Input
Amino acid sequence: MRTRNDHKFIVKCIIGCKRKMLPKNQ
Output
């Protein structure tokens, strides 16, 4: 029943990880 919540959480985690991995010089 919380598949949508899990999906949103996973997407948020992935976006955060990608943003953190991105160089700050850019």
